[in-house]
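Feature request, filed as a ticket because there's no other form

It would be nice if the structure record came with a short human-readable summary line next to the tokens. Right now we just get the raw output. Example of a typical job, pasted below so the devs can see what we mean:
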Amino acid sequence: MGEALPLIFDDPPYRLSGVVYGTLLNSCDALGRIGDAVNQPPYKVAPQAPILYIKSRNTLSADGGQMEMAADAPALQIGATLGLVIGKTASRVSQEKALSYLAGVTLVADLSVPHDSFYRPSVRFVAQDNSCFVGPRVVPLAETGSLEEVSIQVTIDDEPATVASMSNMVRPAAQLLAAVTDFMTLQPGDILLLGVSADLPRIAKGQRFSIHADVFGRLQGAIV
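Raw output as currently delivered:
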């Protein structure tokens, strides 16, 4: 593996220095896919608060980066989403003021090994090296418009794969930030992922992917 690429942005906080937190089952269709099983063991009840996982620093990759796929992984799934970049310390913030704690918003492609369990997702599935592509820039909220209206186009080898809509979230951005900071503090440089849909396109070794959304630009990567 080569030396990790620094992730430097044009807007505060200038460099991703914090932690990337993913959010499970924040998409209504992803939660709906579980169906009545959400009321059965081991879940027993629908989520009452955001379910988070960590994309550790070994996972971080910049625009144009490469990910080496594990030999025992048949494919990877691409979770295209928005990353809420924290600009100032956020603890128990109100929903009304939540977005004022952001430095901006960026594109994120969260790659993982396909897996069925959301109860105890294995680290080996979600935290592989260079599996979290971030960028290409942090866009100030003044330029993004409504985050709920954002649609992210996903292509694999230049062919359309899917469109990820941010309009179908259980907790939209402000509500998610308020709920998460109710039980943990987010620091400047942290990124909170809004969530991914149920139907994630799959990519194999030797293929390239791209995700694109108006204003946010294009984020690209390759599997080697």
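Something like this underneath would help us a lot:
The chain is about 10% helix and 30% strand.
The longest strand covers residues 76-86.
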